[in-house]
Amino acid sequence: MANSSTVDVELVRQALATSTLHHGLRVLGDRWTVQLMLGTFMGLKRFDQWHVQLGIPRHTLSERLRTLVQLGLLRPRLYQERPPRQGYHATAKALAMFPQTLMIWQWERQWGERDIALPVRLEHLLCGHGFDPRLVCACCDQELQLQDLQVRLQPNSALAEPDTTGPASRLSTSGAPRMGLGLRVDRWCLMVIAAVVLGCHYFDELAQALGIAPSVLAKRLKGMVDCGLLERSADAQDARRRHYRLTPASRGLLGYMMCLSDWTAHYHLDQPSSIVPVHSPCGQLFKPKVVCSHCAQPVLAWQVQPVYASGQAAPVHAAQAEEVLA
Fold first, then answer.
1. What is the DSSP string of 172-192?
2. What angle do CA 291, 198, 99 make, to 5 degrees?
3. C-alpha angle 278-281-287 in degrees, rounded to nearest 5
4. Which one, out of 67, 177, 221, 238, has a CA that is 20 to 30 A from the CA of 81?
5. What does the alpha-carbon distance between residue 251 and residue 196 come to, in Å, rounded to a whole number?
6. CA 287 – CA 298 distance, rounded (Å)
């Protein structure tokens, strides 16, 4: 990881602004879109189910469904019920998002404060055991440790936005729009975490790297410290400056961030990200892979059975997968 004493903040700003993480969060990073996609993997498929079980306002739900259909993530379908009812099912493009969904579930189990029911256990139908999702390097199958990553920054001009000055300029500055990762995490938080990972540990560095107004950044950093997503301490050389670093809770979000960035690069933009992680143990570019903690095999959406506290098991997506992958 970068050292804050030598970090090129302008290079970090350009890299964040043209990163697939930033662009992925712009498309899928608002609270209701995350809730809707999570509900899809929980087995919800109809408008009234999303509205009632997830509490998504009807007008907002209509807009998000329309957007997700346009993005090719959901497809309208008439389900043969009595009477037949309009519903939606996930496409192959959406099923490819399952790794980041697993990372959401994993983080929520330990750190989240979600106000909707999530599975208490996941069963891997391939090996027949309950499992925890593990994020590993697709090249060497070693579990990811942050200290094992070296990052190269290569701003991608194809993803530049000429009317912006930083990656945060298009994120809402009013209120604290929740992303759906608990009650404390939103797009701003994830971009702040990314900037810290890239070596920006001081207020002025974060403000420049993210293009955030000082008053907005001060409020956001305080909130992240208060809820345990950042630690703040006086700088050893200048006590007037505050040094920000990650906590176990914010480190736990890196799996989600890396899976989202990889999905955006390959399934949404078809462009490489400007943030290029290299896995030191094998020397290869790090590509995330989520595997079962029991059998170490990749975890696919149609091979997972979510089980809830009531003992109810949500349906798997096997039939749907056969259709969209045919």
1. --SS----BBBTTB-HHHHHH
2. 20
3. 40
4. 67
5. 11
6. 13
Q: Between these two residues, 49 and 117, which has the higher pLDDT value?
A: 49
C-alpha span between 303 and 187 (Å, rounded): 30
Residue range 196-213, pLDDT digits in tens: 999 999 999 999 999 988
* Structure tokens given for 121: 């256990």
Q: What own/partner pairs with CB < 8 Å and gap ≥ 24 does 213-220 have?
A: 213/173, 216/173, 220/176, 220/188, 220/189, 220/192
pLDDT at 282: 96
Q: What is the Cα–Cα distance from 101 to 42, expressed in whole angstroms?
A: 10
How does pLDDT run across 93-145, given as a tens digit for each residue?
Answer: 999 999 999 998 888 888 876 556 678 889 999 999 999 999 999 999 999 99
Q: Which of 119, 96, 36 is nearest to 267 (CA)?
A: 96
pTM of structure: 0.86
Distances 218 to 225, 242, 247 between C-alpha atoms, Å: 11, 11, 18
d(CA 288, CA 1): 18
Peptide bond into 83 cis (omega under 30): yes
What CA–CA distances, in Å, run from 236 to 67, 149, 203, 233, 243?
49, 26, 15, 9, 9
DSSP of 1-35, one letter per residue?
---TTT--HHHHHHHHHT-HHHHHHHHH-SHHHHH
Structure tokens given for 32: 């209701």
Closest CA to 245 of 184, 192, 294, 177: 192
